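for the record, two folds in this file. i put them one after another cuz i was lazy. first one right below, seq on top, structure tokens after. the second one comes after a little note so u can tell where it starts
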Amino acid sequence: NTQAELDAHNKSEHGGKAKTEIVLFKTRSTDQDHCFPIAKNVSDKSLYKITFKYKYLKADTTGAVTAATCLPKSIWDPDNTTKYDLSKTKLPNKGGWQTATMYVNTDIKGKGDTLALFITFGASEKTKIDLLFDNVIVEKIEAPYVFFDGRNGKDPIIVKGKAGEKIKKPANPTRFDGNFKGWFLDTECTKPFKTTTFAADTA
């Protein structure tokens, strides 16, 4: 919300008196304290697969999770945390326990970093969310492999093989707002993926 909207709300609901908790609730929906650690001593420049179960108890909105790495004592400090926005995974509320999967390519800042999950959701002064997590499994994907992410709302595809074997690319992804132009090594799509066979350290 803009400051003008908050001022108008305060004027109509609270006689013009400032109500700090309204602003606080809105900002805390994406603050660092909505998180919990899930693994210790993760490796740098490595791919991890995270699988977990979740269940909504009461919710007026839907949530999402984002992965991050940081030192255990810095888990609530955004200046010492690497947050992987591309790992953000929406958690649809379909009732009962559900399973979600996300992938993280790590970029470690310090030795002994902890892999953590950050919970985000679209909160307001009138929305609430109670969310349970269970059976969190963190799996390191060992080389050789190629990680294909179509950025189209579907799960990425991991293609594994042995040194010397040809890399079989998945079917071209489709998306309603764009045309597929090939696989790239970077998110800016400036470095085409040209490797055709696996090496022992392909990752």
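(here's the note) second protein begins now
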Amino acid sequence: RLGLSSWPRGKPAASPEVRVADELYPFQDSYRFALQAGCTTLCLVPGGEGISGQAAVCRPLAARGEDMLLSWWGPLVIDLSATTAGKKAVGEALEGAKKLLKDGKVPPGLSERDDALCRALTGERRTLVRCGGPGELLHALPFLKGYGEMKITYVGPAHLYRVAEELAKAKASVLVPAAMTYAPETTNRVNAARELWEAKVNV
């Protein structure tokens, strides 16, 4: 959430109509620092547990917020926790949107909320599923298995490599930090991205 407001707190909810694009303010110092560090493209995500909204893929240098955008419509972001309330909020929203599809396609005239959900369900827009760790990821994989048309990328910390076998079986795509981590209860360094790649996970 570089350059954005603080993370909202509260109960899990479904707010797919929330767009980071509406919140962009190009004169934040953090964008200038990112550019100086060599970052030319950013994916800024909404915050909040449940379906938190639509991310924005943008450049860190522009005179206006809309000029930062590389695409007006960004990926749908799901912050999925391993709780009953969190999974209920996400599941009810996806099932409700599934009923709106016509022959597997997105019908015209939907609200922005329903349109965002339907385009994620059909795979027209990618979905980023953020998981706090391996445990949450193991809850997410079977939970989202029934939505086969969705183009999902699981986003999480480096130690997601610990469930590389399960990710490979699910043919899942994963986004992890380009950083070293430690093997459980040791000081042995692990290259998480390499571990996932060697397990045939799409990293």
